[in-house]
Amino acid sequence: MKETIYQTVCPGCGIGCGLYIRENGNGSVSIDFLKSSPVNLGKLCRFGMKLPHYYSDPSSGKVEGLVSGAEEAVKAAASRLKNAGKIAMLSAGNTTCEEHIAFTRIAETLGTVVHTGIPVYPELPSECHPHLEGMPLAEIENAEKIVLFIDPYVQYPLLVRRLLIARRNGAHIISAGTKELHLAHENRDLSPEQYAGLELDSNSVIIADVHPHTDSCHTKQLLNLALETGARIHFMKPFINSEGANRLARDKTGMMGISHIMDEIEKGDIKTLFLLDSDPIELMPDSDRTANALSKLDNLIVISSRDSPVTEIANVVIATESLYRKRGTFINAEGKLRENSGQEVTGIDAMSLLSRELGSEGFEYRQLHGHLHEKMIETLANENRKPEYGIMECAPVQHNGACTLKYLFNPFMWANQPDDNDFVLLNMNMVRSLKLRKGGMVRLDSEKGSMKMRYRVERVPDGMILTARKLQVATGTNTTVKVEGC
Ligand code: SF4
User: Which end of the chain is less packed: N or C, by CB atoms within 10 Å?
Assistant: First the structure.
């Protein structure tokens, strides 16, 4: 049977690990290691190893639930968009730079902007934006001190490789996140007022992340810390092209975070949502509530390379080729341009046709790619510049002392992929106070319902329950819960 081999990038997180996808004549895929990839030297995490599952649901075009060809779906989308009121467009960074630019051109025709869904961009002053861009990961290896505000094992697994090299090179690593990390020399649960005790300087690197549910107040506190100490700061990003999508945005202050978009939909202020490879049902913490809100839209139009919960309920689905087959590029979390060997442009052709149907010009791959290079030169000129922002004030959210169920966002959660992570993490104090039995379960009650989960003991803060998978009782990134042994 004929086999085709594609050189591509893992869509699991912003690291952008290189790999090969082998596609059989019957369309099934398997992975192979790309040892020459400078990002990951052929290594892949559990998510990367399970990519055949991720790619097992290629998208199919639909109009009002009926299977349709690309042209029919594009015309149906154009007809709905021409008659729409306020339109929100979302592309979170799950596709190529060239497709993202094509989507932006359509937004210009429609008189709107493309949101990337990450709230810190609209919520932080624009002079902070260049400092949210990633830095070369090789620089982490030479830092003298590293402070982690993420859990690299769960959230950005191949970052661990860089941290272990840094440790071998003599770096002192401090975890200031919510969970004890084995690779850290110190694990410290610090409040922002205690950050001065970290004793950082210009040879230190702060590593945090920005994603659709990042608390911008905390991002401000970390930028303040970098400014006051001279430490470099590196923000990881959750999707294959989050970095590219945000670097390409012309007016970041006009963008909305995904929660803000969903609030406007719930209020009825947004009646048309147009998505490019971004599924709010996957991206929002409460999938049921999100699906319910989306069902109230007048127009839900989706361009997608894979089937996902939102393609089930959309009015129109414009199906494109799987990500690994696309001709195009991505910008990973360190600002490196990564390229697919695939040559297909079904998605770009569909958006070009849509643009013409909306009364504007069509476009082709080469033009879009040329635009990318112009933007890249602009953003590269911005790299390594000195902070131009001042110390920022913010009012942190006060916790009421009740137990908090907290999401530890990771590639499996963002992409709605099955994982065997069917337990929550809590600390020994909670085990003792609840008199939990070894091998027993906990019952979690929230305003949304009740469920039982297995638990594992880890060093996490008192009163916190961490989960690396979505749970039905969760109403947000942090959910107040009552916990009992059972
Ligand atoms: S670290 Fe990220 S990019 Fe690399 S294999 Fe894992 S999920 Fe994919």
Answer: N
